[in-house]
Amino acid sequence: MVAASLAKPNLIVTQDEEINSVKAESTFKTHKIKFKLNEEFDEKTPDGRKVKVGNSFFLRDGKLIQERRWDGKITTMEREIKNGKLEVGNVATRIYEKEA
């Protein structure tokens, strides 16, 4: 197992007026994104993929939702505070087309 996959990053979330920032810091890598709620933007993921963050981040049922789109794929991340801890869940959707 790769040591980087075992690292638990520190997550720093800040807001300056309408600009939000999420910064994940670990021993191996730092990844930071800045965004406005409900606005699409381009992002380079920690593993180097260039993705379109559709609808950017938005709030739903008390959760901060992030949707990434690339190469016909969609990944949704849900962040929520529960019992004083931040929980992050990932939902991946793949769309298959029937060959003619």
From TrEMBL:
A molecular-function term among this protein's GO annotations: lipid binding
InterPro entries: Calycin (IPR012674), ILBP (IPR031259), Lipocln_cytosolic_FA-bd_dom (IPR000566)
Record Pfam families: Lipocalin (PF00061)
Signal sequence coordinates: none
All copies of domain Lipocalin/cytosolic fatty-acid binding, residue ranges: 8-87
Entry's family note: Belongs to the calycin superfamily. Fatty-acid binding protein (FABP) family.
Record-given protein name: Lipocalin/cytosolic fatty-acid binding domain-containing protein
Organism (species): Xiphophorus couchianus (Monterrey platyfish)
